[in-house]
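Work Package 4 report. The design task specified in the project plan requires that, given a folded chain encoded as structure tokens, an amino acid be chosen for each position. We show below one input record used in the internal validation round.
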């Protein structure tokens, strides 16, 4: 039986020679992509769905008083 403890037997992470250093080009800030033009059609469709659903709800409410 080996006389090493369990914590001594754990593998230690191996650092390769080509690992980046924290201050080497890691501070480059990327702007998030702008999706406003991509989702313009989706926004218009959702607006139409909301408008139609409100009109139908108002119609059902109106019919509930008439009938």
């Amino acid at each position: 039986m080996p006389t090493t403890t369990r914590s001594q037997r754990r593998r230690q992470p191996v650092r390769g020679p080509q690992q980046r250093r924290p201050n080497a080009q890691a501070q480059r800030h990327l702007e998030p992509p702008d999706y406003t033009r991509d989702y313009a059609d989706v926004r218009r469709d959702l607006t139409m769905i909301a408008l139609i659903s409100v009109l139908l709800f108002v119609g059902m409410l109106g019919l509930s008083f008439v009938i």
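The mean pLDDT is 82. Validation will be extended to a larger panel in the next phase.
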